[in-house]
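Reopening this ticket.

The earlier resolution said the output was attached, but the attachment link was broken on my side. Pasting everything inline this time so it's all in one place.
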Amino acid sequence: MSAILRLAQEQLDAYNGSDLDRFAQCYHAEVVVFQNEELSFRGRGTLRARYADLFSRWRFGATVSQRLHLGSHCIDLEDWWRVNPDTSERTSGTVLVRYQLGDGLIARVQFLTA
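Inline output:
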């Protein structure tokens, strides 16, 4: 199995297991994360801070119905859901997530939405 496929699955498993440490270990220290074409944030430390509340308080999960792979790239068609701990409101959606390998870890993530 290629490194990017292994990492895409590892971070998904960690996400679904609410394991922030394992999740963050899949990402390069200088990871860049985009929402569509706009830079959302940079760095593993910022990633951990962004996901800390979600992982510690929320109920959530995701499934991947399709995964494409070419070289250092992986694209997942992901269905996600979350339950807000303050309101019990459930939200869900579908997103394309593009991962790119760099120095043996996920170095670039792009969330593509309609």
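Reporter confirms the inline version is readable. The radius of gyration is 14 Å. The chain has three helices and six strands.
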